[in-house]
Amino acid sequence: MSWLTSLFVAALSGVLGLVVAGLVTATLSQWLEVSSREGAAGYLMIFVALIGGAVGFALGLGSSRIAPGMPEPGFLKALGISGGAVLDLPTRFNFWKQAWWTIHQRLGVDGRPPVQAIYDLATVRARGRAMEEIEVNARVFIEALTKKTEEKKP
Q: 22 with 49: CB under 8 angstroms?
C-alpha cells in the first residue's frame, strides 16, 4: 500500500475519531454536568474531539501500514481495521460509564463504595480487555481514595 493511500486512510480515520470523540464528549459533559455557561461544555467537546481526531489519525496510519502484512491487503481492509479500532473506544467508555452509573444509583453515594463495587464486579466477571481496564481504573481510584483519607487523619 502506498503512503498516499495510507495517509488517506489515516485522514478518514481521523475524521471518524473527531466525530466519535465529539459525540462521546457531548454525552460525557451532560453526565458530569459540565456547565454550558461561557461555553465550558463546548470547549471541552472541541478539545476532546481534536484529541480524538489525532488518535484516529494515528490509528489509521498505523493500521494502514500494518494491513499490507496481512493476507489480501487493501484500502478497505486498512480502513476497516482503523475504523473498528476508533469505534471500539466509545464502547470501552460506555462500559465504564454504565458500571459507574449502575453502582451509583444502587448505593446513592460517591466515593469508595461505588468504586469498590465496580472493582468487585470487574474481578468476578468474565475476563476481557474491557473488564481488565475497568478493574485497573477502579483499583487506582480506590488507592487514591485510601491515600487521600489517610492524609486527612490527624
A: yes
